[in-house]
## 1
Amino acid sequence: MPNPTVHIIATGGSIAGVGPDRMDYTLYPEIGDHLTIEQNLARVPEIGDNFNVIAEDMVSVGSTAIGPANWIALAERIHAIDRDEPDTAGIVITHGTATLEETAYFLHLTVKTQRPVVITGAMRPPTAISTDADLNLLDAVRIAATPEAAGMGVVTVLNNEIHCAREVYKANTLRVETFKANELGFLGYADSDHQVVFYRSPIRKHTVETPFRVDGMSDLPRVDIVHAYAGADGMLIDAVRAHADQTGARAGLVLAGFGAGTFPPAVISAAESAVAGGMPVVLASRSIAGRVVMTPRKDEQGFIVSDNLMPQKARILLMLGLTTTANRNELQEMFYHF
């Protein structure tokens, strides 16, 4: 049988980073140099021995520089590959870890394909001793070529662990086991015996089951996140509202609160004013795990609750939701289904 075909889209990040020496694990982002995807692949000849790889560099930046315009471009490129390369088994995206979880969730909600889409990165650059870049790239290609990964939506892999894009988050600043999935757990392994093994699949709707279509868009509605802290007032919320009023663009707000979604009184007062002015406001939590649930008072105040989406994921869903509707009840239903 011919080797399966996998298409790799590279965007830079630590997985392609170049440090000043083999002992460097921290300075390479400030240097800003990156390997091309072909140079990354040359480090792992086993990929070429076992897979037919098509590779391209879309951008070459740290993921702190990636945002909605790049997300839209990635979705459009994935759709083009899905349309024009019928023999491609799956697609891999290499990405910096800082915003990897956000890019992954955006694509999880917007790409219209059943083929595997796998995002990977690294915590140690290829130039460092004990880099994780090479194995993560190999694992991503292995997963993308695995038929069992089809229909799972967008998944991520680092440290051999396969995560659902909806739940994955970066939990550690430097360790290779940084990506976690709160209390829900990861999906499976790209394991040491060269097998890709899944133990569960995502239940929330994704990819072909969502209404979100971004091809042809140049940007998304603006949504900001304001975090609660002891003694916080309404200043930041008022600033978000003022900016929206000045631009006249559709905008929304996510509040990252305490525990199950509580806030200082001044924050809630400012947020209620924002809702009264027509701005959708989603209540999320600073906590890593658990739900923010609707209560009669929150409902009366006009808020939307995030369910168990972390603030950065709630922001993405609200941005996409605002491309289809401004109705509060319809937006709330999205948080219950996606």
## 2
Amino acid sequence: MLYDFHLDQSLNRLHQEGRYRTFIDIERKNGNYPHAVWKQTDGQERPVTVWCGNDYLGMGQNPVVLDAMHAALDATGAGSGGTRNISGTTVYHKKLEAELADLHGKEKALIFTSAYIANDATLSTLPKLLPDLIIYSDELNHASMIEGVRRNGGSKRVFRHNDLDHLRRLLEADDPSIPKVIAFESIYSMDGDFSPIKEICGLAKEFGALTYLDEVHAVGMYGPRGGGIAERENLTDRIDIINGTLAKAFGTMGGYIASSEKMCDAIRSYAPGFIFTTSLAPAIAAGASASIAFLKTNQTLRGEHIIKANILKMRLKALGLPIINHDSHIVPVIVGNPIHTKILSDKLLYDYGIYVQPINYPTVPKGTERLRFTPSPVHSAADIEKLIVAMDRLWSHCALNRAKMAS
């Protein structure tokens, strides 16, 4: 078998389509984020400003979080020492789950090593608990949700993005006595648009379905205490299962679900992704708990974040750039070509020290390739000005090149 030949073919195809992903080595400097150091292959170091990070509020360097992590590390050591079922449940894990349950007004929460695992494990386990279950999934749901639905062995229906009429038709076509779950997100991260949570909850009630809401891009960011869009819209009590992450606005690592005590107990007891995975390090759990508790009572960072996002969108729009603006904190600029997107990304990095990764197919549909900027409260006015100047110059340059290619 020509294994290397087939591997080369697969990789060359990505290169030819402009979709080959490259990583750069960056070293974050505590207290200096979003500024970091780019460790180049020749041993040189260059300063960069990170514009595509998910540490939305800069909590990954907040002293409240770091102090809690240092204290837990000194008290317990590095790792948890096992799965949650075998010596890996500590006071830090229990405290974190209590913080999360309180954040979402649920009876219980269950933490996983990532939100991807939380989605995959929960959605793939539900059909074991609810015989003949049908899952209705928004077509733009996270890859982790799609994978969980695919792997569960049960029935699925995919409805067009945020299309309530399509969802209704799918629900009407199925046996009303069969268990159902509607799985969707609160904020879709590629366009930054919101889902019609209230209306979906109305359909769920009408057709006797459970609701499963992915809030990973919203927790910590929206709502009076950072509980997400459902909290902001006063709809938390109408959501049966909430999925969230600790790795974005909370600045640490891990994922979770929050639900009824009975639902969490069942997932804990049946989901292989929970049962057979080493639990989060106690220091990470401690840092996440401190971050959640801090953001429950601190609106300042959320307010500053929205201001920075609005300023960036306003400045990019003034340049005539094709941004998508759904009034969320995510700022996509549509380039529409994978090669041009990669060129823009590279030039921003090499010429201006601005780090933003290209977003290409299959993460987004072909023809909608983009740069996705994630401003934060710790991006300064000078950072924004530098980005605007760079985008103005480079966009004009790329437009000229596109015109030449077309002629």
